[in-house]
């Protein structure tokens, strides 16, 4: 238990340190005046534009909650939409605190208040992550196909560099095969000796619950609406960036294609560091350079987007957690009275 906690804390420190480094790296060539300019651009952004961006992001999370509910229904459960929505917002908040903590928390909270096995909910959550990965790949392909000269050329150059570094010598391949077979043999022997242990039985039940959750995608009643909701989620992510351009004078002429590129690289950046800090701002800054936006303005826009969604989750997360407790406490009382 202590080892797991230490590992989580070390992971948090590592991601946070990388984020701090990227913040320094993105501003190391800036003068004091340029850093002040970044601050001015962020704090002077138009509130009338920021509010619609927040609404769009909250709407995307509401649709995500509806889609998650569609995944849960094949498990024989029909949770209240408000509970699912509040659990989603709470999950995003906890993800800012520790890596992947939000995924566990939202499943745990919804399982507690809706009396659904947590392992099955985790299965549906895994299904969601797989769907998001597929959507991200499609977004990447769309970004490359719509601007081959910019993103496509960079992607081809990066791929060539990776392929040129791959060592395909017979010795390395043989060593890898021997290592793989040895690992398989050890796992098999361990399984034979301990297959009836309570520990393995718990793992087996856990895996079955996850598989059942994954299969729920195939069992979704209205597959068309499920696809519509999935597309809507990613379109709203894209729209929040597109609308956000109007918050800064230097970016008002940018359109959907730059928004798509920011969505692509920004999605990776949010995974790279804790809460995307440092990495997201750096990714947006370098992406906007492709469209002739100055580094100062690009970095400011990165900070603006990141700050808006981070502050939003720090507000909606605790409120959602409190509302979950209050609403379900009232529901429990009313059931007891009946």
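Q: What amino acid sequence fits the structure above?
A:
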């Amino acid at each position: 238990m202590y080892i797991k906690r230490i590992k989580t804390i070390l992971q948090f420190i590592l991601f946070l340190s990388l984020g701090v480094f990227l913040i320094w790296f993105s501003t190391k060539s800036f003068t004091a005046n340029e850093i002040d300019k970044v601050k001015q651009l962020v704090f002077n952004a138009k509130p009338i534009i920021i509010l619609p961006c927040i609404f769009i992001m909250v709407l995307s999370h509401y649709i995500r909650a509806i889609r998650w509910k569609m995944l849960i229904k094949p498990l024989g459960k029909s949770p209240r939409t408000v509970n699912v929505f509040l659990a989603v917002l709470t999950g995003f908040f906890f993800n800012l605190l520790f890596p992947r903590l939000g995924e566990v928390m939202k499943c745990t909270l919804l399982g507690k208040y809706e009396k659904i096995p947590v392992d099955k909910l985790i299965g549906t959550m895994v299904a969601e992550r797989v769907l998001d990965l597929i959507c991200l790949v499609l977004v990447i392909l769309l970004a490359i196909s719509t601007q081959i000269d910019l993103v496509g050329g960079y992607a081809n150059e990066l791929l060539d560099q990776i392929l040129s570094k791959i060592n395909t010598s017979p010795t390395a391949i043989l060593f890898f095969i021997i290592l793989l077979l040895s690992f398989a043999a050890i796992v098999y022997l361990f399984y034979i000796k301990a297959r009836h242990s309570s520990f393995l039985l718990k793992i087996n039940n856990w895996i079955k619950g996850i598989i059942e959750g994954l299969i729920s995608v195939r069992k979704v009643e209205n597959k068309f609406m499920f696809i519509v909701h999935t597309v809507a989620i990613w379109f709203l992510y894209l729209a929040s960036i597109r609308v956000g351009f109007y918050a800064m004078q230097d970016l008002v002429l940018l359109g959907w294609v730059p928004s798509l590129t920011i969505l692509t690289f920004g999605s990776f950046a949010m995974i790279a560091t804790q809460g995307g800090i440092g990495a997201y701002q750096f990714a947006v800054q370098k992406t906007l350079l492709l469209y002739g936006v100055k580094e100062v303005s690009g970095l400011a826009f990165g900070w603006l987007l990141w700050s808006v969604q981070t502050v939003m989750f720090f507000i909606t997360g605790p409120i959602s957690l409190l509302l979950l407790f209050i609403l379900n406490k009232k529901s429990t009382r009313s059931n007891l009275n009946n």
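Q: And what stands out in the fold?
A: The two ends are 42 Å apart (CA to CA).
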